[in-house]
Amino acid sequence: VQEDGADNPAFVERLRAGDARAFEELVTRHQHRVFGVALRMLDNAAEAEELAQETFLRAHASLAEFRGEAKLSTWLYAIVSRLCLNRLASADRRVARPGDEVLLEVADAGVGPQANAERGELRAALHRAIADLPEERRVVVILRDLEGLAYDEIARALGLEPGTVRSRLHRARMDLKDKLERFLS
Amino acid sequence: VTCRDAREWLSDLLDDALEPDRRRDVEAHLAGCAECRVELDRLRATVTALREVEPARAPAGFVDRVLQRAYPVPWYRRLGARLFLPLSIKLPVEAAAIVVIAGLAMLVWERSPELRSAARREPVMPAAPSTAQTTTETPAPPVSTSPPGRSPRALLKQPPRSSPTTVVAETPAPPRESTGSGPPASERKPETKLEARAEREAREEPALKLPASPAPAAPAAGQSDRAEIRPRSASSSVQRLTAKAAPPSEFAGRLIVRDRDVAAAAVGTLLTTLGGQETGRREDDADTVLDVQIPEARYDDLIRGLNRLGWLTTSGRPNVLPLDPPQMRLTIRLGVRP
After folding, report:
1. Quick one: pLDDT at residue B129?
2. Are B53 and A123 in contact (CB < 8 Å)?
């Protein structure tokens, strides 16, 4: 699998043929991205792992049907995004436990305590601001600014029109800008 | 383009996603609107902050957990893996455990006389009828326990005998601590766990007695005119085994004659008559010492014949060698009355 380019056709063929080693390689390569999306969306590490595992199991179950029209990464983003949105919309959505993600943050090495504290404060504020976004905006800004997907990839993953993606992304960024006002001035 | 229109396109402007015409319009507005430029800078800083967020990392073991769910292992394979895998670790550990357990078992066995006694009592044969002569039999010392796989019953096995005195191997060996008040033969330490030691004891026992002390039950007689009849240790492997199982008894005898040579010849004739043979002869001081072997069934005849040759005094009875037919080996000491 190529990180940012097209998927290796031979690798895709191995996946479609049910090659366990190929699937293991797929999970190994994409685990952090899939988990990251789930974590930002759900704001709960345990729940994020559960959904990330479910994402790969869904992919494993339908690998034979993968036609290669989209990149494997885009396909996985689509699965995890939809699982997260469904989970957030479900009635039995468990109460998020704030603070889980903060524990995953690692302080930067090589910067002074004050700068580190300020960056930590900005991170915490950014984390809270992302978590406060409406789900449909949150998933777009995560896929675009945290995961680096292109507009059309986001549109394909979420099944949206590109214009809708642009609009939601703009609203999300403006919300975040307003909430981070004191750090940006 | 108003400020409101321009701010709607700021996000696309940052992503370089505007069409060329709209981009020119927005950039022209920004060139003349300081507030919108500030807004653009803040939005750019926000996007920069978002893109600097450190990517999350899946927890350790995530891949394994996914693979376990994707490829569930049958229960019997999981059980096998827990019991036997990885072989490179479990096999040496299990082998070492077996060695340690076996070593501990041997240590306990060696250090516990009760265990050895219990193991020896187990194969006891049916008890032979006890007679007055069984008092001459000595408790069998413990049979070698090395190798441990050897059956004590095999070592103690005796051929069928009609004599009521054949109780040697049927008497369970007493524990070592219980030999303190027994007869002299019983006082010998049953230190026979090694065959070599047992064999050495069987050989050394008569040698120590022969020159050092007269027979304990001898009647008043001079040193030169005593005749001793004592069992001898056998030389063959079967006899060595028997010697361990049936140590020399307290049997002793003396034959006082007028002429040692004549008496020795008469003893030879007597042995031939009884089916026995002379196996050795030597001179010891003024005595002639004959080593003889006779069938056990003719022992009484031998005693009667020796009585006719001279003044015979005996005490005890020699042990029986498990040959076919059972044999007795005796040492006959011929002496001349001074």
Report:
1. 45
2. yes
